[in-house]
Amino acid sequence: MSQHLEIPSELPDHGTGEDEAFIHLKRIVDARSAALGDPAALAHMDPAPAGVAARLIGLNASVNQNLLHPDLSPFATEAERKVIDWLAPFFGMAAGHMCAGSTIANLAALWCAREHGARHVVASADAHISVPKAARILGMPFSPVATDAAGRIDVDRMPSLKDAALVLTAGTTGRGAVDDLQLGEDAAWLHVDAAWAGPLRLTRHAGRLDGIERAQSVAVSAHKWFFQPKDSAMVLFRDPAMQSAISFGGSYLAVPNVGVQGSRGAAGVALLGTLLAWGKTGLAERIERLVAVSEELAKRLEDDPRCQLRQRPETGVVNWRPVDGNTEAVIKRLGATASRTAIGGEPYVRQVAANMYADIEAVWARIEESLR
């Protein structure tokens, strides 16, 4: 490694000064960060963020607002309330709060479910790892349900939902599948983990998530298809009073603390800035373009005799493998253009249309090169 990219092996006795430290680390960050905005990057559910959001995160850090105390975050608290008020109705929800990722959003929702009478958790075997993790933390038994051929929760294998919190997934991590969102009428609580596909509700593809409005709670990651820097997500509730079950007061608090986190940063300011800059139309155009990229990619793979497409993409996630069976080698050659998933125990190439700068021709050129 060149000298300007080295970090001392031990804590130095004397510092370099802030400007020099910044320049030094900027060189390292620039050299050693994944290029999420590369035109051929289509590997993960992690996009390059909106430019205005990245700039506002820096501004947030400079004033260091803490949403645990409204007097320490007068505008940031208002900004979060505004984006929740704007976005919750698209999901049939009426209230909620932001948190540092959908892992915490799912935990908050299932905690609320437990406080409202749910005693165990049921979800697809392909549900995000945060769902069984939350059940373990909350001391609730977890029942994974096998998936059908399309990757959705298999309705024929559903256990009794008596006293259950049923978690349905809107966009599974591996395949982008959407569970049947009409399920759960007999559950004690219905939660939809829409971390990935939730923002489709603001697009012409909103119907792909019909039924989400039936849930008591919904989780959405803003650092996916809302194009925010990490850590940014929302947990939304159909009834504003539901959140009181996961709210705690204290002698040092002016208002009750809601949810899992105590101190937290002002992610709502960056999301508000993005929504102001783009509007609903601008956000929808970016997501719809990415859905089109995934569908064009699927068509090319389907038409190519060297490739086997697993299924048509439902929410921008494409799974395929080379017919010669050399999947792992192809994934390695694709690099940042693809990632890996397993379906039925078999490896598949996974490509996710999250990068708003993706160019289908650049993506296809990498695939062509990987298949030679």
Structure explained in plain terms:
The structure is a single chain. By secondary structure, the protein is α/β, with parallel strands linked by helices. It has 2 domains: 51-277, Type I PLP-dependent aspartate aminotransferase-like (Major domain) (Aspartate Aminotransferase, domain 2, 3-Layer(aba) Sandwich); 279-371, Aspartate Aminotransferase, domain 1 (Alpha-Beta Complex). Helix content is 33%, strand content 16%. It is built from 8 helices and 13 strands. It has helices spanning 18-32, 51-63, 74-87, 102-115, 130-138, 267-303, 327-334, 360-371, and strands at residues 95-99, 120-124, 142-145, 164-169, 189-193, 217-221, 233-237, 247-248, 257-258, 307-309, 317-322, 339-343, 346-352. The strands form 3 sheets. It has a 7-stranded mixed β-sheet with strand order 1-7-6-5-4-2-3, with helices on both faces. It has a 4-stranded antiparallel β-sheet with strand order 10-11-13-12, with helices on one face. It is globular and about 65 Å long. The mean pLDDT is 96.
